[in-house]
Specification:
CATH topology: Rossmann fold
Structural class: alpha/beta
Number of strands: 7
Strand content: 15-25%
Radius of gyration: 17 Å
CATH class: Alpha Beta
Order of helices and strands: EHEHEHEHEHHEHHHE
Distance between the termini: 36 Å
Length: 248
């Protein structure tokens, strides 16, 4: 028996990177995972990879900033599965620039996907969780949402807003046995960080007490805990996954 047997988990931005690691981890624990990404091709590829491991996955294309597409996505899920038990708002983008050089389009894009998307998805899926009186909502924020970062005013604002949304949702839905928490990853090993010059990597690692970048599994392990019954008395919290870089 897995920790998440018979649970259905919607994971956005899960066709690659951290999102795919999260989906795999939840699937390994027994959940059926809904792979949500911007294209059906990328969603299907990730879902087939999970199925090849012997787990259940359903690929769906959805723009998380589009309420109409979210409604269609939920209807497709419910055509196959009666419940949605877990929502992981992982989809996110960056459009980095100094504030004085940042254009309005890049501000809006980041805010729409990183903050509006979780708002729309939570609003759409929460009624299902409320009816069954059980749910887990987990938002993937960032350490920069807690400490800010030069050149990332849009991204930091979106992640700071996501943290505030997390706390508000936790208070609103607690009476229905729905928890809402956030994780705040720091520097995680990704194709993007792999391209950084060695001197830049060294400077980042010097600021991390554990002296290494995190891995996608480091993030996925914490999310698995928050998605399970083991975290039934944890809500409204922001858990840093940053090697001790930012201690609150």
């Amino acid at each position: 028996m897995g920790m998440l047997d018979k649970k259905v988990a919607v994971v956005t931005g899960s066709a690659q990177g951290i999102g795919k690691a999260i989906a795999k981890k939840l699937a390994e624990a027994g959940a059926t995972v809904v792979i949500v990404d911007r294209t059906i091709e990328s969603s299907t590829e990730a879902a087939e990879e999970i199925k090849a491991l012997g787990f259940a996955a359903l690929p769906i294309q959805c723009d998380v900033a589009n309420a109409g597409e979210i409604d269609v996505m939920i209807k497709k899920v419910q055509e196959t599965y009666p419940t949605i038990d877990i929502l992981v708002n992982n989809a996110g983008v960056t459009r980095d620039n100094l504030l004085m050089r940042m254009n309005e389009q890049d501000w809006d894009l980041v805010m729409n996907i990183n903050l509006k998307g979780p708002f729309l998805l939570t609003k759409a899926i929460a009624p299902i969780m409320m009816r069954q009186r059980w749910g887990r909502i987990i938002n993937v924020a960032s350490v920069v949402g807690l400490m800010g970062n030069a050149g990332q005013a849009n991204y930091a604002s979106s992640k700071g807003g996501l943290i505030a949304l997390t706390k508000s949702v936790a208070k609103e839905f607690a009476s229905r046995n729905i928890t809402c928490n956030a994780v705040a990853p720091g520097f995680i090993e990704t194709p993007m960080t792999a391209k950084l010059p060695e001197k830049v990597k060294e400077s980042y690692i010097a600021a991390i007490p554990l002296s290494r970048f995190g891995t996608s599994d480091d993030v996925a392990n914490v999310i698995l805990f928050l998605a399970s019954d083991a975290a039934g008395y944890v809500t409204g919290q922001v858990i840093g996954i940053d090697g001790g870089m930012f201690m609150r």
